[in-house]
Amino acid sequence: MPKISERGSLMPASPIRKLVPFAEAAKKRGIKVYHLNIGQPDIQTPDVALTALKNYNHKVIEYSHSAGNESYRTKLAGYYKNLGIDIDCNQIIITTGGSEAILFAFKSCLNPGEEVIIPEPFYTNYNAFALDAGIKVLPITSDINTGFALPSISEFEKAITPRTKAIMICNPNNPTGYLYSREELMQLRDIVLKYDLFLFADEVYREFCYDGAEHFSVMQMEGLEENAILMDSVSKRYSECGVRIGALISRNKTIMSSALKFAQARLSPPSLGQVIGEASLDTPAEYFKNVYDEYIARRNFVIGALNKIPGVYAPMPKGAFYSVISLPVKNADHFCQWLLENFSYENQTVMLAPASGFYATAGSGLNEARIAYVLKLEDLKNAVKCLEEALKVYPYTINPAVHNTAKN
Amino acid sequence: MPKISERGSLMPASPIRKLVPFAEAAKKRGIKVYHLNIGQPDIQTPDVALTALKNYNHKVIEYSHSAGNESYRTKLAGYYKNLGIDIDCNQIIITTGGSEAILFAFKSCLNPGEEVIIPEPFYTNYNAFALDAGIKVLPITSDINTGFALPSISEFEKAITPRTKAIMICNPNNPTGYLYSREELMQLRDIVLKYDLFLFADEVYREFCYDGAEHFSVMQMEGLEENAILMDSVSKRYSECGVRIGALISRNKTIMSSALKFAQARLSPPSLGQVIGEASLDTPAEYFKNVYDEYIARRNFVIGALNKIPGVYAPMPKGAFYSVISLPVKNADHFCQWLLENFSYENQTVMLAPASGFYATAGSGLNEARIAYVLKLEDLKNAVKCLEEALKVYPYTINPAVHNTAKN
To answer: Which of A12, A99, A132 sits opposite B267 (nearest CB)?
Structure first.
């Protein structure tokens, strides 16, 4: 039997999804599982999008242009203009989810063996995409005690080698919920120009900024025309994760022509998803207002309630709908699996994503988990209650009186 | 300005799509362009599929399982059982088009620098996917004078090196329309086992076999359980290219667990496409009968008419809906661009895919082009007429009396 590839063996299983078989088994045993492990919102897709689908009347579901329908790209350029990002439809390639935008950017910009610096914890699949592209992630660890703020620029400078080609951020951040300030971004701009690097920004949670904070995009910074690359997605903005529509955006023509060749190879992004993505651009402001209010309520409840559990610490997120929390356990991977395999409270349990997979530094985040507050309040209440009860009976819970220092 | 990657520079522009800007410009000048360059059928998507879309009533368009919906995979296993391919739903991963199935297979099975042998001309995007995966294509040239039959097995043996990990075929073949016989496949089976290789088979045109010929799948051969990997797609079968739904199929558990990790990284295949793919499995036999009759009529017309043009030779395809034809020109790339830029006949022109991009051997296929007979008869008639008239006035047409030897 021929051997599979090394990258096939090394490819990490998703920490968000690797426990799915245990969740499925729990459900088969009749246990209700609250999914805080995955950013799959229960918010309704906008009516304008669902209506566009109902009105779809093509008789042949055809390929689109490899860069996506021109009508969609043109309208999308208008969306960015409204945000203060001045681009045209030729600076946009519609991708199959934000995932493909990241892959196109990695592959177009970095040779195998070259490096991208990313503050950790970071969206776990960046690791997978880096392995796919044969590139190396250099992590710079951010700290739960600062709410996972941007590490100091001197840390970045220390990490840069001759093989470093890019810095990547996710803003607002998945998994931490941190929102980078304009000042932090200007620091990144300076270092990127100083060392002639690309700056990749995953800004798919742009609309989810709380407490009056404003989002500032890498595409709004002057002088970064050739360096800045934006990865975007409709998945969370309009709660339509399943359409698999994202976008790669840059003013750098060389990158865009390279990415277009990758796009041509896979022919076209999903045609129906584009119909929905384009229609979603007409989503009324009221929709976002309601979604915003809902997430603020969920965030305030879940962070408050988690911090009341002995030994648990959850920093207050300023954006997105995640938080990386610390737990009074030594091995959150074991605890999260145990929650599904060995625990239930009133026939319910909760599924979390162990945070170790969100770090590239081995041994980091072992007592942390990512939660996504994407369920309605009542479900969140039950989920937090399950977590509280579980920590009371989990055999390896650490005495919170000794270890719960992060809150102080 | 930071430099883009080598693979970004080397990635080939799709020969099927690279002339699109010239076609768009021709259309803006008011010229009707007949698209024989791309396998985008004008056949209607089955009613069952369009109805399923109309009946879609989810309020949240969610991610699916990374391997695809279980209901779809289960029903798809039934489709394969009916073809004599005995697999279950765990041996199927639903992919974003056949393209992603090929990428998952290349990356799961081959390390960068390792080799896959493919008879050429081959589906041009295999080159792009190989470059993406960092692997090397070893081409073995098939011959227009044998209708592009499988080259002799001794040619394969000569090509095998210690880095060779796989042989890949497309059956029925895109771009040649050749259908490999059971005997040819058994020869491949023997060599694959002898050298402990994977056998990749792209069988997306399975339903398009003509003149009573039967399709034989690599999944039907005994002894290849660990070696055979099937790449499939709904695009052409149901004329729904835009849904971007394919499948990776193997009985080799190690490969499937590796591929699942790649699938998890990109979260899920398109959800709406899966609804359509699943519904399409109920397409009535009559639909296929009509499609078959239509393609037979198109094939017989187009191949007959092309062979009447002085200097043109088109072998009779036994499957799929393509043919690689030879033209009385020295440089088909130039000719195909000229057709769009400098030619029109009664305000019409024709777009072909230059065949050079379907070869990995530099300098091969320079006088060849791929045609896709995916348009209705009347359009095909006009398209062939355009080609005939074009060759009369193209400044670099070679005297057919001297060069048209392939027909003899």
So the answer is: A99
pLDDT band at A280 (very low <50, low <70, confident <90, very high): very high
Superfamily designation of domain A6-44+286-403: Aspartate Aminotransferase, domain 1 (3.90.1150.10)
Q: Residue A401 above 80 pLDDT?
A: no
- The most distant pair of C-alpha atoms in chain B lies apart, rounded to whole Å, by 66
Residue with tokens 């270092």: A191
Nearest chain A residue to B61 by CA: give it: A240
From residue A15, give the alpha-carbon distance in Å to each of A20, A23, A124, B264, B322. 10, 13, 7, 10, 44
Report the b/e string of B340-370 with b at 16+ CB within 10 A: beebbbeebbbbbbbbbbbbbeeebbbbbbb
Q: Token match 């499948």: residue?
A: B247
Can you give the pLDDT at residue B400?
60
For residue A274, what is the nearest residue in chain B, using CA coordinates?
B242
* Separation in Å, CA of B120 to nearest CA in chain A: 18
pLDDT at B142 exceeding the cut of 90: yes
Q: Out of A6, A258, A272, name the one closest to residue B9 (CB).
A: A258
Sequence ranges of chain B with CATH classification 3.90.1150.10: 6-44+286-403
Surface-to-core class of residue B408, CB atoms within 10 Å of its CB (0-12 exposed, 13-18 middle, 19+ buried): exposed
By the 10 Å C-beta count (0-12 exposed, 13-18 middle, 19+ buried), A82 is classed as exposed
Contact map slice: B 263-282 vs A, CB within 8 A: 264-273, 276
Chain A CA closest to residue B130: A265
Q: Write out pLDDT tens, residues A232-254.
A: 999 999 999 999 999 999 999 99
A368 and B CB contact within 8 Å: no
CATH assignment, A47-280: 3.40.640.10
Torsion angle in degrees (nearest 10) through CA of B311, B316, B319, B321: 40
Do the Cβ atoms of A4 and B109 come within 8 Å? yes
CA distances from A255 to A66, A221, A400, B126, B245 (A): 15, 18, 51, 22, 27
Question: Which SS3 state, helix, strand or coil, does residue B145 take?
Answer: helix
pLDDT at position B338: 98
Mean pLDDT of the region A157-171:
97
- The beta-carbon neighbor of B273 closest among A165, A240, A270 is A270
Is pLDDT at B279 greater than 50 in this prediction?
yes
**Distance (Å, whole) CA A268 – CA A287:** 30
Burial status of residue A161 (CB atoms within 10 A of its CB: 0-12, 13-18, 19 or more): exposed
Among residues A407, A310, A323, A400, which one has the least CA distance to residue A369? A323
Rounded-to-integer distance, Cα B32 and Cα B377, Å: 16
Residues of chain B with CATH 3.40.640.10: 47-280
Q: How far is A82 from chain B (nearest CA, A)?
A: 26
Using alpha carbons, list the distances in angstroms from residue A152 to A155, A324, A361, B362.
6, 20, 18, 51
Q: Mind listing the pLDDT tens digit for each residue in A284-309?
A: 999 999 999 999 999 999 999 999 99
Instruction: Say yes or no to pLDDT of B405 above 50.
Output: no
C-alpha span between A344 and A390 (Å, rounded):
8
Predicted confidence at residue A18, as pLDDT, reads 81
- Work out the burial of residue B256: count CB atoms within 10 Å of its CB; fewer than 13 is exposed, 13-18 middle, 19 or more buried: buried
CA distance B313 to chain A (A): 28
Cα B168 to Cα B198: distance, rounded to the nearest angstrom: 8
Share of chain A above pLDDT 70, in %: 98
* Residue A245 amino acid letter: I
